[in-house]
Amino acid sequence: MRISLAEMWFQMSIMHFHTIPAAATFAGRLPCGLHPWIQLAVLLLSACTQLATADETPADAASDATVITRAVSAAADSVVRIRVIGGRQTVDGQAVQSLVTTGLTLTATGEILTSSFATAGQPDAILVEDAEGNRQNAELIAVDNIRRLSLLKATAGVWSPVQQTSSAPPQIGQYALALGRFYPARTPSISLGIISALNRVHGLAIQTDAKVSPINYGGPLVSLNGDVLGILVPISPGGGGAPSTGVEWYDSGIGFAIPLTDAMRVADRLRAGIDLSPGRAGFNLRATSPFSSEVFIEKVLPGSPAEESGLQKNDRLLQIGGTTVTRTATVTSVLAATWAGDTIEVVIDRDGSSLTLQLTPVAALAPPVAAWVGLLPCSPALANQAPDTEEQEHAAPEKVAVPVFVLPGSAAAKAALPESIEISAFNEESVSTFGEIAMLMQAMTPDTEVTVQWRIPGAAEWETSTLRTEQRTESIPPLLPQFIERLQQRISSALPRQAADNPPPASGEVQRQELFNDQTGSGTLLSPPLAEAFPCGLLLLLSSHELTEEQILQRWGTLLRSHALKLLVLRNPEQSALTSDDLPMVDRGLRSAISSSSIDLRRIVAVADGPQLPLAWQLSNSRRTGVRGMAVTSGTLNPSLLRNAASLPALSILQGAVSGSAEDLALAEETLKLLRENGARLTLSGDDQDLLQAISDWTITLQSL
Fold it and tell me: What is the Cα–Cα distance from 556 to 565, expressed in whole angstroms?
């Protein structure tokens, strides 16, 4: 019978560990217990391996086809089965009471390294099977939250530490085996692949296309001579050590392992019983392009390690941690691999002079406390209106003015600024856009004085006022009826400016625009009449699958016009509650709404209740979607989502009133505590507030400075 090389490879590929419950017999029966095609494939693999990696392959591999079984046997005794019980364990987003994963024995006294995926939920108990198959209790010593490794110590048992016969570094293209112990079998389960890249994920990891999943997280990546190359972990460039980091690569053909030499150094640090956390430096970068070698400090956070080290705005980075800075990614990679508390050297150029500074990142930066003055941008459409009279059209050009609203009760209002003004200078800096005022505000802290040069629109004289910045409170600033009325006057004043050949519709009803309706789902945009004359905020309704459009409009209709809002209603093909699986469809709806309609990009908000909060969280934490905040109508975010989140200071959240059991209230309190500690812009609606009105008011204040 003639078979092709592709057919042989396909037959061999079924050796993935998910399909080998009979792995216990695999080691001893490979030559006679498998299909002849698989035997032939193993022979072919052995011959190829002799040519490609002669130093690793036994001399008689081609004749007896035992190369894989020998490699597995060399490492098998040090690969242990771990069962984690209780705690807040999750797999694929679902809570589980226990889970099984893998570890690697380091010492005869029962020290075991595994992936922190197994211990992220603070388990109630950890059981490990020793070399004789007996279950032993183990305690969690410490965790490395960068490399996603945990050190365990068994209380008893017989243990076989990992043994190495070669210290040769891994090579791209060499074959490797991913081992795991899901079943209580004598032989580990096996997945065969190659090493596809080195120094991945900020230089931390080996990349392999061997199949990697929660089953063999913590297990070894083994060469064909049985040496352990690394420990398999879920890891991802942008994860920052969060519990769910890297799990998205599950069985994708992209797996990662921490090199064994690095893992051993981690174990030495973890023996002290102190968790290792990613270091936070507290500065932002500016580069002329992503690949520019000229990388500058854009901003240094007050009180941060960067400020304490002496770094300043406009310093050019030359070296960091002994690595020459060739682009912004260099700095990111070095810091991403640096533990909090470790000191690294930074070489900078400042005004032509080279300086060497010592930077010691910390585990957590003090959340930035943004200053607030209560200035709200007018629509760009209003800021660029044509002159009303011929005299104005031919008058001498004036200084550029930025039209703004002054929010009631704000610092600007307390300084007696009128509700509607134009600003030409902020803190003695000339400004021509609202964005320039925002940039100047970034350097402000609460309880500092700023000067504003302003005038009432149309007035000839300019005035200068001094106001004192405040810290934004967690309550929604009350929008007085006259303020809303003033906003409506502004909107109405824009309507006659529409082109004569594009008159506004006469109907006062909400306008409906179908964005798409196909096999992926449907998206509908509901807009107030005449909305294109004034850029509107956008509310993405994630929890409206049980409501008809008529019911949605009964709830929101009057608020669309009064607060210049649009509603994006999305439905999946099943007409069921939206989940994270619907993220591509939601992203499509957002892009369609923004590209086809006049949207104020500073007022895009996801509105969700408990079941849809994980989806709202994903949207709010992705720069690509453009969602600027989330309004929680019921329930609260799960605290596990907030731990180690790096983007909280940029996140705005409106939390509706919380009710329920004592457990629900305790969970909500923990969530609010984490949001406050991490600097999120948290706003609470009162128990007696109309929630939809509160959300609408909040979307207006969301963009205020």
Answer: 9
Q: How confident is the model at residue 249 (pLDDT cuts 50, 70, 90)?
A: low
> How far is CA 517 from each of CA 179, 184, 521, 524, 567, rounded to the nearest angstrom?
46, 50, 6, 9, 17
261-308, pLDDT tens digit by residue?
A: 988 999 999 999 998 888 888 888 876 666 777 888 888 887 888 889
Map tokens 């310093």 to a residue.
315
Separation between Cα atoms, residue 342 and residue 227, nearest integer Å: 31
Specify the DSSP class assigned to residue 523.
E
pLDDT in tens, 13-49: 333 333 333 333 333 333 334 444 444 444 444 444 4
Q: Considering the entire predicted model, what is its pTM?
A: 0.58
Mean pLDDT of 609-637: 83
Percent of the chain residues past pLDDT 90, beyond the cut: 8
In this predicted structure, the answer to whether residue 530 has a pLDDT above a threshold of 70 is no
Report in angstroms the alpha-carbon separations of 2 from 7, 12, 35, 45, 648.
Answer: 10, 16, 15, 18, 61
DSSP helix/strand/coil, 128: strand
Dihedral angle at the C-alpha atoms of 260, 261, 265, 266, nearest 10 degrees? -30
Q: What is the mean pLDDT of the chain?
A: 77
Do residues 116 and 231 lie in contact, with contact meaning Cβ atoms separated by under 8 Å? no
Question: CA torsion sign, 30 to 36 to 40 to 41?
Answer: negative
Q: How far, in Å, are 54, 197, 660 from residue 175 at the CA level?
A: 12, 12, 55
Q: Which of 86-100, 438-452, 476-490 has the least mean pLDDT?
A: 86-100
DSSP secondary structure code for residue 555 in this structure: H
How many CA atoms lie within 13 Å of 57's alpha carbon, on the beta-carbon side? 22
Three-state SS for 303? coil
Amino acid symbol at 161: P
Backbone angles phi, psi at 491, to 5 degrees: -60, -45
CB atoms within 10 A of CB 346: 26
Give CA–CA dist 180/217, Å, rounded. Answer: 7
Helix (H) or strand (E) holding 491: helix 481-494
Instruction: Report the candidate in 690, 363, 386, 379 with the shortest Cα–Cα distance to residue 556.
Output: 690
